[in-house]
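Tip: read the tokens left to right.
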């Protein structure tokens, strides 16, 4: 039976850019959209909202082919193996998606019929397109098959998008074109393909991005207006290639669907899987993505993919006619390793699974949030991670727990039970509200969540020392310690839940908290008791899981 939705309940479709299954996740990937979307989804669920966090493996990327060629592997088997590894790494990182599916027959049928509707609406326009062609490789060069320099910022880049500036290029605008795989000669051949004319949607785009000024992160809005300052490019919906989904357009047999055009219907299909809807393979059935349904679409992506999500996908949705466009895009900048870009091909990387094997998942999530490249690029080093986790989290956590115990013992509060009164509940509620702010869409910031968590622990430790001050009246000291215990026992398991769910579970267990999966309206009336045994268990919840980080002090 379908339960009637509560009118106050919001429904969120949360996406993170489908990763290319040509390798496992490295730490740079993890710090980007996947962790952010997970924190957001977990918080919204605590608020009682309905969330579908969806993603998939982007199997048809040309990068799967070029990586397989480099490794001497079969691309199909490589993609399947990497999808399995990625699934395990997401699990090890406590990142829970509602769908992380692989391309299958249903996906293919859905994408094809979605794009057939785009064509039926007159938006798959046939145009001649000039492609570089490698005679030695016997293929047209685009995306990962081609390399050159960006026409906007001059960085070395592959085809389609420049990682450095996020601007699109195509096989006609890329400078100093060569094959990425061989040194042989290239010639140019003209092929008729289907394109989406982005310029047709100029007025929709202009109104849309005007409405996002000052609301979305500035880099992506600035990018949109720079794009709008010039004629918008035609976007290829098909490429002459044999790797990908056969184009569903008559006369273009032998071409495949551009993966970035495949991605939007792919995400719609993943959402249908997450919703447990029956497979119809009918791309006009957009389910939760239909604008007629109540839902909000929140997309997490690396800044370098902005063009696809800010121009290609909205234009495709408008061209389709029954597909929602994004409400909020949350971009991240690059996370670098020792001041250079993570690079799988150059071996300059740390695999996420290796880091998660050597370090506790909660420490990894805390650090990736604290050092999150939200507005500018950030730098990862293993030594900085160890030091920051110790100084900003582990040590203040130990000092907060032992400080409360000592102060309670000195004031004769040990073992006493009490209930949180309205006044203390209001103070604790203020702390919860501060954390809530950085979990909400408009002010979402894992960096500030981690910062505030660290500062809260430092504040608790300082409060416990203050309570022992001889200048303080006994009643005031007791009130302070009870407030600190409320923060530690009641607030901490809640505010750590989206960021460090496994730690929150252990902490909640130590204090016999059963309702840590709900963000409460008030903590008034909740019971507290300061007992040495439970605080020891709480200390063990963190310290015992951190053998690698426990160092001589
Ligand atoms: Zn560029």
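Filled-in amino acids:
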């Amino acid at each position: 039976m379908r339960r009637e939705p509560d009118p106050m309940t919001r429904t969120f479709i949360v996406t993170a850019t489908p990763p290319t299954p040509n390798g496992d996740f490295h730490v740079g990937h993890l710090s980007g959209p996947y962790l952010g979307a997970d924190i957001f989804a977990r918080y919204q669920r605590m608020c009682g909202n309905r969330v579908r966090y969806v993603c998939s493996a982007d199997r048809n990327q040309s990068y799967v082919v070029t990586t397989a060629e480099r490794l001497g592997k079969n691309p199909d088997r490589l993609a399947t193996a990497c999808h399995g590894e990625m699934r395990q790494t997401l699990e090890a990182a406590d990142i829970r998606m509602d769908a992380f599916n692989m391309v299958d027959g249903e996906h293919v049928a859905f994408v094809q019929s979605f794009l057939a509707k785009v064509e039926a609406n007159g938006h798959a326009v046939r145009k001649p397109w000039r492609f570089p062609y490698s005679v030695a490789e016997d293929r047209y060069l685009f995306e990962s098959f081609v390399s050159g320099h960006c026409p906007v910022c001059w960085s070395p880049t592959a085809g389609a998008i420049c990682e450095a500036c996020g601007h699109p290029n195509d096989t006609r605008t890329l400078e100093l074109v060569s094959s990425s795989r061989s040194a042989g000669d290239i010639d140019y051949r003209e092929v008729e393909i289907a394109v989406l004319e982005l310029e047709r949607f100029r007025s929709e785009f202009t109104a849309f991005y005007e409405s996002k000024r000052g609301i979305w992160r500035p880099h992506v809005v600035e990018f949109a207006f720079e794009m709008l300052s010039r004629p918008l490019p035609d976007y290829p919906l098909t490429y002459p290639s044999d790797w990908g989904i056969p184009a569903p357009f008559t006369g273009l047999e032998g071409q495949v669907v551009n993966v970035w055009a495949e991605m939007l219907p792919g995400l719609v299909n993943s959402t249908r899987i997450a919703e447990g809807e029956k497979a119809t393979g009918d791309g006009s059935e957009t389910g939760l993505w239909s604008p007629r349904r109540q839902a909000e679409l929140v997309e997490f992506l690396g800044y370098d993919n902005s063009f696809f999500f800010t121009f290609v996908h909205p234009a495709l949705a408008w061209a389709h006619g029954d597909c929602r466009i994004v409400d909020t895009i949350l971009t991240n900048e690059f996370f670098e390793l020792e001041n250079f870009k993570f690079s799988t091909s150059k071996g300059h990387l740390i695999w996420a699974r290796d880091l998660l094997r050597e370090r506790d998942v909660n420490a990894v999530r805390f650090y990736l949030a604290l050092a999150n490249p939200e507005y500018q690029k950030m730098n990862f080093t293993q030594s900085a991670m160890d030091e920051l986790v110790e100084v900003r989290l582990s040590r203040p956590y130990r000092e907060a727990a032992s400080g409360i115990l000592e102060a309670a013992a000195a004031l004769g509060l040990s073992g006493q039970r009490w209930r949180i009164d309205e006044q203390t509940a209001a103070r604790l509620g203020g702390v919860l509200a501060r954390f809530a702010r950085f979990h909400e869409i408009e002010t979402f910031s894992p960096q500030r969540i981690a910062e505030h968590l660290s500062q809260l622990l430092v504040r608790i430790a300082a409060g416990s020392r203050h309570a022992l001050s001889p200048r303080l009246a006994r009643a005031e000291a007791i009130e302070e310690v009870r407030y600190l215990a409320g923060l530690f026992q009641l607030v901490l398991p809640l505010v750590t839940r989206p960021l460090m769910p496994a730690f929150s579970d252990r902490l909640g267990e130590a204090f016999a908290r059963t309702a840590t999966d709900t963000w409460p309206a008030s903590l008034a009336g909740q019971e507290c008791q300061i007992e040495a045994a439970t605080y020891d268990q709480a200390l063990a919840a963190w310290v015992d899981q951190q053998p690698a980080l426990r160092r001589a002090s």
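The domain at 361-549 is CATH 1.10.730.10 (Isoleucyl-tRNA Synthetase; Domain 1). Confidence is low (pLDDT under 50) at residues 549-553.
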